[in-house]
Specification:
- The chain is mainly α.
- The protein contains 2 helices and no strands.
- α1 packs antiparallel against α2.
- It is elongated, with a radius of gyration of 19 Å.
Length: 89
Amino acid sequence: MDIGEITALFNGGLIQTLLLVAPVLIVGTVVGLIVSILQATTQIQDQTLSFVPKIVAIFAALILFGPWMFQTIKQYTVHIFNLIPQMVK
């Protein structure tokens, strides 16, 4: 196994990681932005008001995107395990 194949595996792993965390990060960011705008317009500066909706939204995103995330990581893991015979040559 040469450096190009190792780099390709590392690159694939980083792309898979970004694909898996993107939905949760986007949901958390959007909810945080909406709550911040609401707090700024109403002048309510309570810390729990910004924290609780983000946690609920992130858990909802994990429940919603969880099966897709699991399927994606499972496919990538199977792909890596199928490459093991080529790696040991």
